Amino acid sequence: MFEEIEPVFYSTTIKPSFERVHVILAIFIFGDNKEGIGRYRLQKELSIGSGTARSLIKKLKEAVNFITILSDEKGHILKKKGFEYLEKIKEKIRLISVGDSKILKDILVRPEENHSYFCLVKNAVSKISNGIEQRDAAIKIGGVGATCLLFNGKDLIFPSLNLDFDEKNQMKVEDNIFEYIRNLIDIKTAYLEENDVIIIGLGENPELARLAALNAALTIL
Description:
By secondary structure, this protein is α+β, with helices and mostly antiparallel strands. The protein has two domains: 3-88, Winged helix-like DNA-binding domain superfamily/Winged helix DNA-binding domain (Arc Repressor Mutant, subunit A, Orthogonal Bundle); 92-218, Gyrase A, domain 2, CATH 3.30.1360.30. 36% of the residues lie in helices and 18% in strands. The protein has seven helices and seven strands. The chain has helices at residues 20-32, 39-46, 50-62, 80-90, 132-140, 175-187, 206-218; strands at 67-71, 75-78, 93-99, 115-121, 145-151, 156-157, 197-203. The strands form two sheets. A five-stranded antiparallel sheet has the order 3-4-7-5-6. The chain has a two-stranded antiparallel sheet with strand order 1-2. The chain is globular. The termini are close together.
């Protein structure tokens, strides 16, 4: 799935300072901004420096031919090839959406201090053990952490090393949290199905929370 974007990281001199998560998120952002998005806004959205944003845009344009410039004022847009890759990613990561930390507070770390975003990852329960790898990925990219939830067809449950959907003692989230998440997914027409994974990323600001959620999600693709 990531082979198509590997040319973005090729360099005969200095290794790019952006990560895979920045590339994937940039493609999502371009996809959401069909009217165009400029370098300075992309820089803010990805929490990267000006030079890094300039390099990333150049690579997406020249190395993989995913974007093209619309105008100096409107910035860049995704080309057909970019949209085709975005659709491929969305087959697995169906949704990236802001979360309400006040509603999710019972399952988050320091929710009063942090923002939250969540990803819906399709059919990925088998890739989760205890959620530690996802938490570490969130922290690595500048987030505070990540919480993983697994859908067993009936409830959202927390991951366990001894995962068995038939066990009655699985720790599940409260009904109000489950309903909030499911309703938000339904509104986005993404739909929650058995063996799907919800990853909630936390960050000091919304941009870092989104990066945390997505970087954690990329560990199970």
